[in-house]
Amino acid sequence: MQEKDMVNDILSMTKAGMTEYTRAIGEASDQGLRQTLQQMRNGDEQFQYSLYQIAEQKGYYQSAQSASQQELQQVKSQLTQGMNNMQ
């Protein structure tokens, strides 16, 4: 297996793991367990971002084009509106 394939596999697995941590956090009623899961998820997020930076530098991963400030504001407004509608 090539290094590029291994890096991309690890990135995918880490992202999937973060999804599972988030799901478990949402279902955990014990505050200590929630905190532990949050710390583990945060650690995985930091690891994933570091690995992503390495992959991008080596040309293994190409990120999407950056959004404009207007596009970012539009998404933020839509998310805020959606959250307000839920309350």
From TrEMBL:
Pfam families: Coat_F. It comes from the Bacteria. Keywords: Capsid protein, Virion. This is Coat F domain protein.
